[in-house]
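Methods: example folding runs. The two proteins below were folded one after another, and each record is reproduced exactly as written to the output file, sequence line first and C-alpha cell line second.
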Amino acid sequence: MQTVPCWLCGKPLDLRVTKGGKFYLVCDPDGIQCFIRREQGMEKLKKLIKHLARKDYQLEQHTESFFAIQAILREIEDLKQEIEKLEDKAGFLFPDKELLRARDALQKRVNLLLSQLEQVPARKQAETEGL
C-alpha cells in the first residue's frame, strides 16, 4: 500500500481512492482529510510517494546503524560506571586483586565495544550490499 506521512504527527497515511478515482488521505488521530482532485496534484502525489519510498529505504538503513551505535554507547557508559565503582571499592594502598581483575575484564569489554563501534557503519553497508 502506498503511504505518505501525516504532516502533523508523522503517522503513515494510506493513499485512498474515491469512487470517482480521486486520491485522498485521512489521519484519524489528527482529524485530517486531504482530497486531491486535480490530475496535476495526483501526479505530484504519485511522484512524492515514489520519492519518499526511496528515501525511507535509505533512512531505514541509517536508522539501524544509529540504533546499533546508541546501544553500544549505552553499554560502554554502563561499563564505565561499573569500572569506577570497582576502582573505588578496590582500595588504593592494599587493593583487592579480584576487584582489579573484574575491573580489567570490564575494561577489555569496553575496548571490544569501541572496536565494534568503529565497524558499525561499514558492517551495515556491507550487509546491505550483500557482502
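Second run, written to the same file directly after the first:
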Amino acid sequence: MSLRAQLLKRELESALSHVTAILAAIELQKQTLENLSLLGIIEDREWVDLTEIASDLQVLFYPIAVQKQKSLEIQVGSFCKAHLRRSSTKQILINLIANSLNYCRNQVLVTLWVEGGRAKLTVIDDGPGIPDDLLPYVFDPFVKGENSQGSGLGLAIAKALTLQQDGSIGVKSQDSGCEFVVELC
C-alpha cells in the first residue's frame, strides 16, 4: 500500500505540474488576444524584473520540455530590471522558446540580462539550423521550413514586438543549431 501511495503521489504531482502549465498558457493566450483586439494601442513600459519573466517561462515550458525529453535551462543575470513592455517581452520569448523546443535535438538555453540599460535575451538550441535559402526571410510572415507544423507567424510576431520596443532581433544559424538574439531598449 505504501508503494502504491507513493506512485499515486508522483502521478498527482506530475498532473498538477501540467495543470499549472496549462493555466499559465491560457492566461498568456488571453493576454495575447486582448493585445490583438486592441491593435494599435501600445502597452505602456514599466520596470520589469526579468527574473519574474524567467519564472513564468519556466512554469509554462518546463512540463513541455520534460514531455519532449528535452533540456530547457533559463539563466538570468544578477541585475535584471529594465524599462520594457512586460507582456510583449514575454511573448517574444514564448515564440522563440516554443520554436526552439520544436526543433532542438536535446537542449535549449535561454539567457536574460541587462547591460547598459538594454535588455539582452538569447535563445540557443542545438537543432539542425535554418536552411540558408530561408535564413534571410525567417522573420517574414508565413515563412516556414519544410517540416514546420506552425503558421509561419511566430518569428514575424517576435520581430514586430521587438521593433515596437525600439529593439533588434537577429539569428545565427549553423548545422549545430540556432541562436536568436534580442536587444530591447
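Comment on the second run: The first strand starts at residue 46 and ends at 49.
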